[in-house]
Amino acid sequence: MVWVNAIVQGILLGGLYALFACGLSLMFGVMRVVNLAHGDFAVLAAYLALAIITGLHVPVLWSALVVAPLFGMVGYLVQRFIIQRSLDVSPLTTLLVTFGLSIVIQNGLLEGLSANSQSLPSGSLASASFQVNNQLSIGYESVIVFAVAVVVLVCLQLFLSRARLGREVRAAADDQEAATIVGVNVRHVYGVTAAIAFATVALAGVAFGMYSSFNPAAGPQRLIFAFEAVVIGGVGSLWGTLAGGIILGLAQVLGSQVDASFGVLAGHLVFLMVLALRPSGLIPARLS
Prior knowledge:
Elements (H helix, E strand, L loop, with lengths): L1 H30 L6 H19 L3 H30 L3 H20 L16 E5 L2 E4 H23 L1 H11 L1 H6 L4 H26 L7 H15 L4 H21 L4 H15 L11
Helix pairs in contact: 1-5, 1-8, 1-9, 1-10, 2-3, 2-4, 2-8, 2-9, 3-4, 3-8, 5-6, 5-8, 6-8, 9-10, 9-11, 10-11
């Protein structure tokens, strides 16, 4: 039963990783941009949620409803005025630009706040759980985060397949020049894509703050986990991102059962194995 519990917890943890990774996967799938500041924006969202919770005295879940739209607007502006300009120069330039954003966010948080770890107060939700049997209990918090990840991915899939703007996103991802010829405003489409990616990483940042403590330097580690989930599942594949997150979560939790210090390393080893045996990921990239 210990191993069954570990498998369940690993799957639920995979939902958090998938939520982290879906925005990274979407931006790369559409714009071929690897956002190296992805994890730092998640940490920034967690700090903003903390400020909203302490300032307005609202529950943590309500803070997410404020943080996500705000980050969506920030994402649109960042893409149009920063990332797009670097794309016009060279796709490789975006790596330098997003790395610079990462450094700015980290140092800004250190200067404005402190290096002390913080966590989001989730109240009774942190300890609430339901009993499957005498030896297995599942936390409501983990289930909520996993459910949010699945809902986000379903909504993204429906948006890309049925909405007019979603079809324009797919067209821009397939062939930017052809999309421009038929009247698609590619720059606006890229901005919308970044807005969605930033909104999802804001949700992930709030979820991360509920799960564990965070500090200004926590962004790079979150980026690594998101990147591994994307590569394992398949770069640019939304459902592959969920599969990659679950596989990474299972590897880490099951590895921790073998040895407490082996959890993170087990995830890295699975990532390297997939990268060596199937570089394209487990599920082929497909935004449609």
